[in-house]
Amino acid sequence: MSRLTNWHQPVEKVGEYIKHLSYSVLRTSMEGSTMPKSPKVEKGLKGTSDKRSDKDFIFGKLIGEGSFSSVYLAKDIHTDLEYAVKVCDKDHIRKEKKVEYIIREKDVMNILNSKQNPKAPFFVKLYYAFQGATKLYFVMTYCKYGELLNLIQRVGFFDRECTRFYTAEIVRALEHLHSLNIIHRDLKPENILLDEDMHIKITDFGCAKILTDDNVEAINDGRKRKSSFVGTAQYVSPELLDSKTCGPGSDLWALGCIIYQMVSGLPPFRSKSEYFIYQKILKLEYDFPDGFCEVAKDLVQKLLVIKSEDRLGAKDKECYPSIRAHPLFNGLDFDSLHEITPPKVAPNLPHTENEIQWDLRNQPGLNSLELELEFGLDLEDDKSESKSAKSTDPGASRKPVKKNLADVSPEDYVLRLAEQERENKWHRFTEGNLILKQGLMDKRKGLFPRRRMFLLTTGPHFYYIDPVNMVLKGQIPWSSTITPEAKNFKTFFVHTPNRTYYLEEPNGRAPEWCKAIEEVKKFYYPD
User: DSSP letter at 277?
Assistant: First the structure.
């Protein structure tokens, strides 16, 4: 046979269509599954056939990409319902030998469809599967708010309440998954999606393992059973690296890594190469940054344990009561999580034990800087403004600073730019723009600070450079909605549409930076 067969049908009727891909026929075992339908879906399907093809969907934007697939937002023309449609290239699957991944994902989603737990609706559902001449199509739940990873990156890190809630939902999902003898094996923030109500939906079961009775017996007896190496470097468990064995404990290890990342902003095991990441995992080589929630820290330490049988929850027979009993979850009802409105995720101020909340250079009393910080009042006179500019703004000594930092006359612009090119070693990073303000600041990624040279320039641009290696690391994107927010004299946020940047000015000039950003914004975006 030269083409795929048995794909133009709903999930419950999809037969064997993947397994023999190398022989030009994709087959997979999907018998016995039931297509999940809400009342709205049932109503929308009245008068239509359950069969679907790509002609039954309007394909919109690309919302995800994998090693052998692309995911599109699509609308069913019969029901107007939105779905995420994974499109896989048959030739690429064949070439990359990913047939088993496709089979495995379909089998797992089939089981989850047929054995749903109303108290743990935390999985992406498969609604339809069909084929074209060169493509395979999987019609799945559309999760409006994307990956958990993107949310963590956008806000930097989660506060305790958000960490508590989303950890609990992941635990509840794992309880159900493991009760079905399924191990995910690639649990990570990229594979945890957020639906329109901001509840989690776990996805990507290509690396999952369905345990047979022999597998379960071997794990319960503590016997090792070889398994193929799968997973993502930062979240893979020691037993998968060391002996290629796996059990539910592998997912509990990944849970510990995810909790660490939610609290700090980065995974616990990090390096420039996978080899060194693996070495750190095997040696349990990681640490906690200042400001890490102590209660969450205790839970992470009880999950990131080398021996899988010693991890919290590993000895639990049904669900994970030992994890539920952890102080992080005090007062939380795990069986009603799906009915609770998730806590609001917002940027948080990193708190460290040695953080100083005041500027020691200031005189006693409520001075102008404090008034500006607290009430947004611009009380600085020309003298103090010029003094501040002289120490931090290139070219400011040439003439008094104007009302607006970016309002530079053409003549002065040419002179200052020429001087900058001659004397300022950071000029080569500016793309020919005039530096309006520069200074060393700590750019935080979660709880982890990195010292960077920041250049606020005409254009406008906001560059940041690694001052040790003299490498441009990036720019804070400008738009009419960019908003600085001073939290204290040293720390301030820069809010952009897709991310909030956490910056720390070591000399206590955070309000001055906020004012400079506001002036540049006002100059370039007057409305």
Answer: H
